[in-house]
Structure formats: C-alpha cells, structure tokens
Amino acid sequence: MQKQHSASMHHKLSGNCDGVPKENSPFINSAENDKNNYDGTNMALFEEEMDRHPMVSSLLDKLANYTNLSQGAQEHEEADEEEGTKKKTVKSPQMGTFMGVYLPCLQNILGVILFLRLTWIVGTAGILESLAIVGLCCSCTMLTAISMSAIATNGVVPAGGSYYMISRSLGPDLFLLGLCFHYRNWGVLLCPLTAIFTAERKEDQLNALLNNMRIYGTICLSLMAVVVFVGVKYVNKLALVFLACVILSIISIYAGVIKSGFDPPDFPVCMLGNRTLQNLQFDKCLKTEIINNNTVSTQLWRLFCDGPELSSTCNEYFVNNNLTLIQGIPGLASGVISENMWSVYGPLGMLVENKRLPSVGGIDPAKDIYLPYVVNDISTFFTLLVGIYFPSVTGIMAGSNRSGDLKDAQKSIPIGTILAIATTSFIYVSGVILFGACIEGVLLRDKFGDSVKGNLVIGTLSWPSPWVIVIGSFFSCCGAGLQSLTGAPRLLQAIARDGIVPFLQVFGHGKANGEPTWALLLTAGICEIGILIASLDAVAPILSMFFLMCYMFVNLACAVQTLLRTPNWRPRFKYYHWTLSFLGMSLCLSIMFISSWYYAIIAMGIAGCIYKYIEYRGAEKEWGDGIRGLSLNAARYALIRLEEAPPHTKNWRPQLLVLLNLDSDLGVKHPRLLSLTTQLKAGKGLTIVGNVLQGTYLSHEAEAKKAEQNIKSMMATERTKGFCHVVVSSNLRDGISHLIQSAGLGGMKHNTVLVGWPGTWKQSEDPQSWRNFIEIVRETTAAHQAMLVAKNVDSFPTCQDRLGEGTIDVWWVVHDGGMLMLLPFLLRQHKVWGMCKMRIFTVAQMDDNSIQMKKDLQMFLYHLRLDAEVEVVEMHDNDISAFTYEKTLVMEQRSQMLKQMHLSRTEREREVKFNTLLILCSAQLIHDKNTTAHTTMNNKEEAGPDRVHMTWTKDKLSTERNRNREPNANVAVRDLFNMKPNQSNVRRMHTAVKLNEVVVNKSQGAHLVLLNMPGPPRNRGGDENYMEFLEVLLEGLNRVLMVRGGGREVITIYS
To answer: Are 407 and 70 in contact (CB under 8 A)?
Structure first.
C-alpha cells in the first residue's frame, strides 16, 4: 500500500503530460488525494478548505513517501497518458556518496587524454606551462562544482539532475544549455572511439589506416548502441569493472615511475644528429653493418640513400651526422626534469630535436620533413593545448546525473563531486611532474610513438606490463563511451519532454518502459559524425566549447541566484560566493577564446540561433528561474529610474492604452484595432489592452479570465506585444475611468488612449454609450494624455496586407504638440504602410500669407527630418449657408426630441408607480370594511403623523394624472417646431461642414486621413451636439484617425 502511495505521489510530482515536473506548488500538488481525507471536529474551522489546502500531517506523510525515479531502466517508467503505459512501483534509492557520486565522476573525468595526450602536452608545453594548463582547467571545474553544489542543494533534484538544475535556474530562454549538455555527452563518446584505434600519421600515409579506424569505430559504436538499447542495467553492472581497470592503470603508472628510479626500462630512441627518427621501417639504428666480414647497408641506409649500394648518393644530413641511441625513459634519477621544464612550441612540420646532441648541417630542415623524421603534425602553441586538454577535466556532473539513485542527493553531490575533482587534479598534477622527470623530451613530443614503433610511452613506463595500460585505457574509453551513450539520449528525452523546442518532441517518446529509443538513434548518428572525423585533436576543441558554455551557464545561474537573494534560494551547501561564481564564469569565457577564438564564436553563434528559435517558436514555461528574477529586479530598477523625471521629448513615443469592446461571447469586436496598434508600435514601447466588464468581480471572475484569455489570443494573432488588463466594475463609466487613471506602473504608464469611433451612436437607444465616449475624451484631456480615435476601424489593413502606392494625409488645423507629424512617420516604419507617401495640409485664414506659410512649413519639416508634401488650403469667410442653418436646426430639434423622449419615459415610470399605488389603496379600503377594528384603525391613522389617509378613487387618480400632461405636451410640440438654432452651434456646424468639404475634396482617395480632434464642450448639456459635429466632420471619409494631443511637445527639431 505504501509503495502504491509513493508511486502515485511521484506521479504528481512528475508533472503533466509533457513530463515537466509541477513546480507551481511548494512541495506536492495533492489536492485530488486529500478531498475526502478529513474526518473530525478538531479542525472544523478549516473543513471547507480541505480540498485545496491539505492538512500538514497529510503533506508531511506524502513528502516522506516521495521518491525520485532511478537513473537506470526505470528512470522514465511513469504514467504517460498519451502512450497508455502503466505506472510501475519504484524502489527507494540506495546509493551513497562513494558509489553514487565519487566513483562515477572519477570514471568520467579520467579518460583517454590522460593516456594518449598528457605526455605530449608535457613535452610540448614544458612542466611549468603544463602545470599552468592543468591548474587553469582544474580551477575552472572546481569553481563550477562549487556553483553546481549550491544549485543541487537548493531543493529536491529529480533524476537527470544536471539538466534539471540548470534549466530551472536559467529558465526556458536559456534552454539552449540543455542542448549543449547533450552535445557534451555525445562528445565524450567521440573521443574514446576515435582514440581507441589511434594510429595517426602524416596525411599522405594515413588514408588507409584512418578508413580502417572509421570502420572499426562504426562497428564498436553499433555494438555499444545495441547494449544500451537492450538494457541500461548491463551498462551499470559493467561500470565498476571499467572503473577498476582505470584505477589499476593509474596505480601501475605510479608503480612504474617508482621502479624507474632504480631500474629504468630499456626503451631506446634512435637519433640522427639531434633529430628523432621514426623506426617503423628499420630494426637497427645503424648506417651499415658487417655480415660475413662484408660491410653492407642497413634498412635505415635505404631510407636516406638512392639504393642499397654503399656508393649510392645519400642525404647530406645523413652523411654528415652520426646515429645515436638514447634511453627514452631514463628514470627519476636521471635529472631529465631540468630539460623538460620549458616549452618547445613550433609550426606544422617542425622536426622533433634534442638540442643537447651535436648536429652538422641541416640549415633548411623543411626539405627533409618527408624523410623518416618525427615531426609536428600540427602547429603547437599554449592556447591550442588548453583546448585539447580541457575535455580531460570534464565529467564533473556525472554524480548529479545520478541524483535519482542517491539516498541524500543534497549531501552526496557536493562532497562526492569536489572530492573527485580534487583526486583527479592531484593525478594530473603529479602526472605532469612525474612524466617530465622520467621521460626524455623528444619521446614526450613524439605524439604517436613513431620513434618507438608506435608503442604507448605510458604503457612502457607502467609496471608490471604495458598490457595493463592498453587494457585499462580500452575499458576506460568503453566505459566513458557507454555512460555517455546512456546519459545523452535521456538528456535529449528530457529536453524533448519539456516541450520547449517543437521539432524535438518526437524524441521524447521511447519504449514502453521509458527507454529513449529515438533519442538513442539520434545520439548514435551524431557520434558517427565524430567517428568519421577520426581525429582527436580536431574533435577536442569543439567539445571544449560546449563544455565551457555549459560550465559558464552553471556559474552564471549560481551568481544570479545569489545576487538576487530570492526567498527560495536556501542551499544547504554554504561554501559558495557570488564572486567565486563570477570568477568561474570568467575563466570559462576566457578559456573559450584562449583555446580557439573561432570555435568559440561558432559555438556562441549556434547557441544564439537556438536561443532565438526558442524565443520565436518555443513554448512558454514558468520555472521560477533566476533569469526571471533578474528580469524583475532589472524592471524594478528601470521603473524607479523612470519615475525620477518625465521622458524627454526626444524619447517620447506613444505608450498606448487600447480600449477594446467585446461581444456577447467575450470575443474581440474589432481586431483591426490591435492591427493598427501593432503597425503603430512595431513592438516598441508600452501597449496595454484594456476592457471593462459590468458587474462584480466575485460573480464575474470566470468571465474576466475568459475575456483576458480571448484578448491575449487575439493579441498573439495580430502580433501585438503588450499587456492585457480586464477590469470588472459596477458600471462601465467607472471601470474605464479606473483604467485611464491607474493602468501601467510607475514610469511605464500610458500617455495615449486608442479607441474606436462609436459608429452606431445615433441608432443606439441607450445614450450612455456615446456619453461614455465623451467622458473618455474629457478624462484623457484632464490627465494630459493624447487620444486617438479610429473611424471605420474594421476597414483598416491587417498586418499581412501591403498597401500600394498612396498617401497618408495629415490635416494640421491646430498645433497639438506635433503628434500629427509623428504618427505617419511611425506608421511608415511598418511594412504595411511602407509604400505610402506623407502629405500635410494646413488651413489658412483670410489674413494669412499662404505662400509664406507653405515655405515656413517646408522648413519646419526639413528640420524635423520628415519627408512630406506640403499644401496650404485657404478657407474663406463665406456667409453661413442655408444648409448649415438647416443642419444645425435638425441637430437641435433632435436633441430636444431626445430630451422629450427622456421626459416621456419618466412620465411612463410615474404612471406605473401611480397604478401600483391605486391597487394598494383599493386593497386597503376593502380590508378596512371587513375589519371590526375599523374605527380604532382610523383613530390611529389620524393620530400618527407618518400615516397618510388614503381616500383616492379611480376617477380622482385619473384626473390628477392627466391634469398637467396635455398642456405640457402641447407646449413641447409647439416649441419644437417654432425653435431657432443657437448661433454658437451654427458657427460650429459651419466649421465642420466647410472643413469636411475641403478634406473630402483633397483626401477622399487617401489610404489614411489624420486630423485634429476638437474637444468636447465645457457645458455637458451640449454633448449630443458635439457628437453631431464630429459626425459631420468625418462624413464621406473611409479611414480616419482623429488625433487629440496631450498638451506637451512630442517632436523636436534638435538632436
């Protein structure tokens, strides 16, 4: 029963269908299990909340029974609804620090470079610079391990801990780190496979051998992939055997070094002058030898001469210099350590020489590089050696990857990882010193052992037999390869199951027991690419870049979390500091460019591409990561800075509050308003999309969330970047007012309100709709905010449309801060309006100089750096036409009729009240007649000052109701037909009519018309007339954007 409970508990922690752990609850999301668990009266006060807030005892019980999935075959055996797999019980983890962290880290860190490249690095860089290389790289990994320990001990880490830790610390935007981890893991496999069969020569001699290596490597990779596919448990069983072989190999090296102090091995190296010879094609280090009393040439003679005859023409250097046999491993007591202290770097093709030996001639060694000399196969320098050596100190996260197998991951991971790094650092440092003290320099620089018939130098040094090193290195490589081929597919599967990168989701599936089959195939394919490269030196720098990027982000995550001091950052590992993390991050970045600056740029470019892809196409995830916290802190700092002073005119841009209307299904009525917002903003500045629902929040909470979801969906469709704010208010007027006043935060508040023109205001029975519009105009003016009103917004272009050649016409009637000039410029930055030209019309009165106005306006636009055509339109003071009088009269009559209709509605309401009162009175009279206490009741009514004696009859009520109705109605109708228009309204209507005639004449074919929006009257009694003026002003125009400035300059001629 307990196992089933634990399994179900883990399923809840495991998360949703995409395999992501549910981290939005503090410990466990246990709502479903706790619904019916309460039975008792001690906590009756909380019984109604038990379905959402479980008892502490229940929470602790589930936390105690919680267990991680193990790393092996049962790692992903969880309930997957899509695949229909059945949940299996999981055994409790049993591994401690030594077996679970220390030994796996040791096995992954100690690899092929120790056996095949460390001697060459010591010979090339010298002991001192080799110690610098080892110290630099080991310091980098130690600092990274400290940062990783802090992250690993900051809460429960599920199985596959390294990816989980970093992704949750840095967030989905830096999810590329997980892919770096994947490439890092398959890279560890590449090195063993290309190194097991290493027999690298000069290019002209290697083609056949490299092809054989590729064939053998492919066969070996296939076998290991089959083993991993069959079952990871076999890999885990062999891990101890592989590790034991590695440890025995290292012990045999130390034993051989000690033995060399008193009994060095016989390991001769043939030297011609001071040059090292390849002895692959000869057995004796002699020019000639005596056989049967005859002097005959040797195999070595034939390599330097035209023929076997002693009279043959030979190489000049061969003739002038003697052959010498020196001991390749003279031992500890030889004093060779002093000669190996300093570096011997050189270009490609440089001869490996011993400067202590005499040499005659050979001034131009370039022509001798094709003779059987040992030469540099690559150009050597310090930074190159750093890149080649760095993969040998990696593998520090092998323990954290096994976090699901550990008894106490928070205790084991820091101790085991740091001890493993300390142990391997000691091995590498001691190896550098001992190799430099025991082995001759020319043999150290002989990368492939050509001077000793291709034998491993370390194998010859070791005791009791070179086969210990051969077998140990082989199993070391196979072990590291199998571990990487096991871990990398699971890492890729975890990445795919997180659902961040859509095209990787196919690799989240596998066998019924969770084995990542598809991820294994992809990993094996990538490994095959490395095998086909068949060069350890070419692969190692590439791997170093991915390792270093991973470690850099680990340090960054720890530093960010430490500096932010988030409440959840409480690591049990206390020996960390943000300065150490920054130092580790700086070391990683420095080593990247030190080892290979072009590989570093390529790796960072790949990471950047992955980042942008995830940002553009990836799923949204909220993991409570440090980058999110850093963004919040940066936003807080920026908001405080913005609050200090208003933005300068040069920095002014429209920060929009878009007021949307929703239909009965809570869908957006006018999505083109969002299209206009996108075209106007182009992702820059602040955009708040607001809406008001009428009612109370408690009763309309679900509707508010649905409305917000619909608005966000439409914003995503229209590519409007901004925020959504849905307010529930008792009435629309107050809700809109609250939005205008309080939307935004600090310095990031809107300065412009964008609304659609209420086109159906005349047909609306409720005048509150257009009154709300006028109140919005008044409130934005009072708040010193600009306002944009779009007429016929449904005819505006979408973001996918491309308007052809046309014009954006600006009618500049009054100066409002220059916003009319700025808006067309912003619109033309978008590809929808990019082909449109800008025209500016201004209105001249009778006493204005039109020619001078045009010149001044052109100069003004020149200083504003705006390209536009300028035209001055003259409006003469004509007499007010009869049409204007008639239109004004109709407007005022309509206004008066609306008032009468409102009064009539009030009369009808009063009539309903009177009828109700009549019914009540009749019922009271009947009741009084049938009551024996009638007299007493009457007395009480007369005595009570608050009682009314009801003596109404039906006739009396009708007479009283109709007494004032008919005369008032007749007077109202008579006044309506005899009224004269107000002269102020006539003048306003005249302006609207004349200006409309001019605008329609000049701009009816324009793609968009922008003009100044007049303000509402100060007297609220003329609000309906104001709407009529605007209607006349916009008549006959299709796309119109009325602009009302906020009272400040928004554009300047100064730089």
So the answer is: no
Predicted TM-score of the model (pTM): 0.66
| Cβ 282 vs Cβ 323: under 8 Å | no
* 906 vs 194: CA distance, rounded Å: 95
Are 647-801 and 805-920+983-1050 equal in CATH topology? Answer: yes
Q: What is the pLDDT at residue 438?
A: 94
Q: What is the pLDDT of residue 724?
A: 93
805-920+983-1050 CATH choice from 1.20.1250, 3.40.50, 3.30.700, 3.30.1490 = 3.40.50
Answer yes or no: are the C-beta atoms of 26 and 59 closer than 8 Å: no
CATH 1.20.1740.10 fits 92-261+380-595, yes or no: yes
User: How confident is the model at residue 916, as a pLDDT?
Assistant: 57
Q: Which of 787, 664, 795 is nearest to 736 (CA)?
A: 787
| Residue 122: predicted pLDDT | 95
The gap from C-alpha 1038 to its chain's centroid, in whole angstroms, comes to 42
pLDDT tens-digit profile of 120-141? 999 999 999 999 999 999 999 9
Q: Show Cβ contacts of residue 906 under 8 Å, excluding neighbours closer than 6 positions.
A: none
**Per-residue pLDDT, 588:** 93
CB atoms within 10 A of CB 64: 10
Q: Which two tokens stand for residue 84?
A: 């229909």
Q: What share of the chain in percent tops pLDDT 70?
A: 71
- Report which of 620, 621, 633 is spatially closest to residue 566, judged by C-alpha positions: 633
694 contacts 729 by C-beta, under 8 angstroms: yes
Q: Which contiguous run of DSSP H or E holds residue 1010?
A: strand 1008-1012
Give pLDDT, residue 937.
41
Taking alpha carbons only, the member of 676, 623, 945, 896 closest to residue 796 is: 676
- Interior/surface letters 685-697, b for 16+ CB within 10 angstroms, e for the rest: bbbbbbbbbeeee
H or E element at residue 728: strand 723-729
Name residues of the chain where pLDDT drops below 50: 1-40, 66-93, 173-179, 181-204, 923, 925-927, 929, 931-952, 964-974, 976-978
Which of 10, 151, 141 is closest to 626 using CA atoms? 151
Protein fold of 647-801: Rossmann fold (3.40.50)
Asked if the bond preceding 502 is cis, omega within 30° of 0, the reply is no
